[in-house]
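Ticket #4471: structure output looks truncated?

Reporter: J.K.
Steps to reproduce: submitted the chain below (98 residues) through the standard prediction queue, then opened the result file.
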Amino acid sequence: MSENKKPDATKPHALTKADLADFNQLHKKVRDGVAAFMEFGTALMEIQSRKLWKASGHPTWRSYLREVAGMSPPHAHRIVEGSQIALELVESLPNGND
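Returned output as attached by the reporter:
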């Protein structure tokens, strides 16, 4: 009977040059995505709070969200809250968002 062994977390995983290149590309996407998420949530919050959605010709915030962003007001609220939490976390890091 073979024993299932877990990888030793104390030993570094050998990465190839291709792995490192892939990581660098994916890491950039993660960082860019976090920044975009925070910007998106902040923009939604400002559009709603200042009623700027009226400039688009939509009669309600709900219709603006449905037609432009394809989401419901509760989903937009979750995005706003999540982006604000992400912003607070980034600001609490010793080196900002590095």
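Triage note (M.O.): checked the attachment and the full token line is present. The helical segments are 17-49, 61-69, 73-92.
Status: closed, working as intended.
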